[in-house]
Amino acid sequence: MNATKADELGKKYMRQHSLYREYAARARNLLENLVEQGGIQLYSVSGEAKSTECFLQSYDVMADGAPSSLSDIADLCSVKILVHFPEDVEKVERIIHQEFLVDMSRSVTSANLDDPDRFGYPAVYYTLSLNKARGAMREWSKYKDLPFSLEVRTVIQEVWAANTPKVMLPTDTATKRKMQRKLFRVGALLEEADEGYFALWESARESGMPVTAPVVSVEPAASQRRVFDRSALRQYFQEHEEIPLRWAEIAAEAGFPPFAPDADYLETSLSYLWDILRAAEMDSPDEFQRFIASLEQEEKGKEQIATVFKAFEREAQSWRVDGYSALFLLVLNLKWDVLQNKDLVELNIKRGSDRIKGII
Questions:
Q1: Domain boundaries for CATH 3.30.460.10 within the chain
Q2: Rounded CA gap, 100 and 311, in Å?
Q3: Which end of the chain has fewer CB atoms surrounding its CB within 10 Å, N or C?
């Protein structure tokens, strides 16, 4: 690649860097949701866009045959998934093939790693892009031509990837050969450890006694042990019917048109409220109750509802704000610091918001 072409690519990437950062965050959230829905326990998921500094360092002296456009470079946007066992890696791979377009010429699958003479304990690597159906969606269309890279590793494979470069220092030939032989053995031991942990886990599941772990009681222990799910939220409002009624009244006082929904509509509103509570990481009864109580402090909730109405006064005349929807708007605004980095489309928050606005 000549210097002029590298310079042009560098400038283009600097202009589009925010798009790649956004794509990395959304791809990370999408993959996290898909894997969790597949019943696979995650250790961690991360996503990032290559920094402009790293991009310029990588491509300013590239030889001929280097990428001619940004869409040819997969690692500008990258996601890494860590799971517990090798079998989980294979499960993630099946999801990947179902949900994305896979560039096999630039991917290393688990099937490619079966060579008994391979070095170390490498992980699978995929070059992916959005499939046709997802790329056609309005909220995803701007990313449809952008590839991204995905690494799927076990936690132990991550140890190999993190530590091996630290010992690969320049040295004489004899020492280098000794180190490589040692690394071959280390890689084999790590792979054996992965398989051993999985065998132990399966054995523990089959032979384990149905006894729960001891719980250290901390007051108030009863509320901490309560499950907080959609049913628990419904039960909470059955016991506190005055709360959604009060917030429906406050919304009407702020200027939103009075709205008397039927039972089915309210049930759906409750469902969207649960979606946003989960996205905002309010996942315990105590935390939700503290949030409800905080709305009364210095009339914070009432002022926030009024602020939302003033900001959208013209459009708000067609909004449908029942009590649950008013609480939805409060969570959306007061927990925006948590929500802004989430994929609000995949988490159903965008749809809940559009429903309040009367769009759907």
A1: 3-157
A2: 39
A3: C
